[in-house]
Design goal:
The protein has about 260 residues and is an all-alpha fold. The chain has a domain at about 1-45 and about 55-135. The protein has eleven helices and two strands; from the N terminus they run ααββααααααααα. It has helices spanning about 10-15, 20-45, 60-75, 80-100, 105-110, 120-135, 150-170, 175-180, 185-190, 200-205, 210-245, and strands spanning about 50-55, 55. Strands 1-2 form a two-stranded antiparallel ribbon. Strand 1 and strand 2 form a beta hairpin. Helix 7 (about 150-170) packs antiparallel against helix 8. The longest helix has about 35 residues, at about 210-245. The protein is globular, with a radius of gyration of 22 Å. About 30% of the residues are buried.
C-alpha cells in the first residue's frame, strides 16, 4: 500500500524492500499491547469484571491465538493480494500482542498476571518488539549477499554468524543472541563477553574450584553480574512497572480466582 510514502526513503527502503507488512505488524503489536495493558491496569484499579464465556473467564491470550491462527492460515494457504496481506500482518500483530501479554500465565500455567512472575510477559513483549524492529533494519551477516558473492562466501558468512549466535546464547545472553540473528554485531559482541555465572558456558568453562584461570573467570563473571544488576536492575524494574504495571506482592492466584492452596 506504500502507506508512508511521504517519509523520505520509505518507498525505497521499506515498501520496495517488502518490509511494509512487517512494519504494520510492529505498529499493530505495540498499539495493541499499550491499549491492552492500559485497560487491564484501569480495570485492576476500578475492580471491573472480566469477560466470561459459558461461566469460564476468557483470557485474551485465547483471542490472540485465534487471530494468529486465522492470519497464518490465510496468509500461507491462499496467497492473498498485497493489500490483503498487509491487513493480515496487522491482524497477526494484534494476535501476538494479546498472546504475549499473558505469556507468563501460559508459561507458569497459573494466573500470575499481576504477580512478580508476571513480569515474564513484559520480558516477552520487549523481546518481540526488539526482534520485529531488528527485522526492519536487518541485513545479511557481515554483508553477505548470495546474488553478489560466491555460494561458498555466502554460506561461510552465515555459518560464522550461526556460531556467534550459538556462543552468545550459551553464555546466557539471550536477548543479544536473538538480536544477533538479525544484526550480527550484537552476536559478535556477546560471543566475546564474559558469560553469565549461571549459564551453560560458565558451568562448562568457569569453575570456582578449578584451575586458577577458570576460577578467575568465574569470579570476574560473578562480579560483573553483580555490578550489572546493581546498575540496571532497579531501572529495569521501573521500566517494567511503567510498561506493565507494578506487581502485587502476594501469592499467585489460580485461574479460578481463588488463592493457591485454597481447598474450596
Amino acid at each position: 500500500m506504500n502507506l508512508f510514502r511521504f517519509i523520505p526513503g520509505y518507498t525505497e527502503h521499506v515498501y520496495e524492500a517488502g518490509k511494509e507488512p512487517l512494519l504494520l505488524m510492529l505498529i499493530a503489536f505495540l498499539v495493541t499491547f499499550l491499549f491492552t495493558r492500559g485497560y487491564t491496569r484501569i480495570a485492576r484499579v476500578r475492580g471491573w469484571g472480566s469477560t466470561h464465556v459459558g461461566g469460564v473467564h476468557m483470557h485474551h491470550v485465547v483471542v490472540g491465538i485465534v487471530l494468529m491462527t486465522i492470519a497464518g492460515v490465510i496468509g500461507l494457504g491462499f496467497g492473498p493480494s498485497e493489500v490483503f496481506e498487509e491487513w493480515l500482518a496487522i491482524l497477526f500483530g494484534v494476535g501476538i500482542a494479546l498472546t504475549l501479554d499473558e505469556f507468563a500465565m501460559v508459561f507458569h500455567l497459573d494466573d500470575v498476571y499481576w504477580s512478580p512472575e508476571g513480569r515474564t510477559s513484559v520480558d516477552a513483549v520487549v523481546t518481540a518488539a526488539v526482534l520485529l524492529t531488528l527485522g526492519l533494519v536487518a541485513f545479511a551477516p557481515f554483508g553477505a549477499d548470495q546474488e553478489q558473492d560466491t555460494a561458498a562466501g555466502f554460506w561461510l558468512a552465515i555459518g560464522i554468524n550461526v556460531v556467534l549466535v550459538t556462543v552468545t546464547f550459551l553464555k546466557g545472553k539471550i536477548k543479544l543472541a536473538l538480536a544477533g540473528v538479525f544484526f550480527p554485531p550484537f552476536a559478535l559482541f556477546g560471543a566475546f563477553r564474559l558469560a553469565k555465572p549461571r549459564s551453560w558456558w560458565a558451568r562448562r568453562f568457569y569453575d570456582p574450584g578449578g584451575s586458577r584461570r577458570r576460577a578467575r573467570k568465574y569470579r570476574r563473571a560473578v562480579a560483573r553480574e553483580a555490578k550489572r544488576r546493581k546498575r540496571w536492575h532497579g531501572r529495569q524494574e521501573t521500566l517494567y512497572d511503567l510498561l506493565g504495571g507494578a506487581p502485587t506482592r502476594e501469592a499467585p492466584r489460580e485461574a479460578s480466582g481463588r488463592p493457591k492452596g485454597d481447598g474450596r
